[in-house]
Sequence to fold (159 residues):
Amino acid sequence: VISDEIHADLTLPPYQHVPFASIDPAFAEKSVTCIAPTKTFNLAGLQAAAAIIPNETLKRQFNNVQQRQGILTLNTFAVAGAEAAYQHGGEWLDALLLYLQKNINRLCSYIETNLPKLRVIRPEATYLVWVDCRPLGKTERQLKQLLLEKGKIAVEFGS
Fold:
């Protein structure tokens, strides 16, 4: 199991992130957990990410592939950026989580008041919010056009 936990640091109060590998030792032995400070601290350009692999055989196989591709280690800026973010960014992260929660509340309130047919799926983490537009009864193409023309929002449905 590849567990993408890159957004874990953006878990909103009162929720808590539970790492997949922590659920059961058997899960940990069959998993690769991907983490990074890039989403949380806006460091994507530094390309700082890590894979946590408890199983030594799996870790060796993973490292062999990474080494063949020439990407086994992080660059100097990535290490420094990740270290600074995790050691000194706690206060900033707390403020960010409050800011995100306020924006989510504002979005939910707006949609409930102005677009009552739509249903917001309130997130437990991250800055992404899903909105269920099925009650509008539009096809994917019609919805995409409506969002673009009326809402000035360009979307890709991923289907």
